[in-house]
Amino acid sequence: KKSAILSEHPEEGKDAQFKGSVIVYAGENAEEVRNIISKDIYATSGVWDLENVQIFPVSYLLDGGIKRSFG
Fold first, then answer.
1. Angle at 35 between CA 32 and CA 41, to 5 degrees
2. Is the pLDDT of residue 10 over 90?
3. pLDDT tens string 13-71
4. Would you tell me how many other CB atoms lie within 10 Å of the CB of residue 70?
5. I want to staple 67 with a disulfide (CB 3.0 to 4.6 A). Which of 11, 16, 21, 62 is the partner?
6. Alpha helices in 1-71 (DSSP H)
7. Taking the mean position of all CA atoms in its chain, how far away is CA 3?
8. pTM for the complete prediction?
9. Do 70 and 55 touch, CB atoms closer than 8 A?
């Protein structure tokens, strides 16, 4: 999933103030996730600044169990 990060909740009738984006990728480690990111259309077209990509490990529930991944 690709989602936007906003600097604040947009007021009715006003444009949202875009701050960044968040994407969840599954991988065995940060290096694998960085490799996946580098092949994304936003990376290959120059939209994302790959030098400043931040990768965080996350845990989420999937089918009643905990699934751990990076990204």
1. 135
2. no
3. 888 887 877 888 888 888 999 999 999 998 999 988 899 888 988 877 666 665 555 54
4. 19
5. 62
6. 30-38, 41-44
7. 7
8. 0.61
9. yes
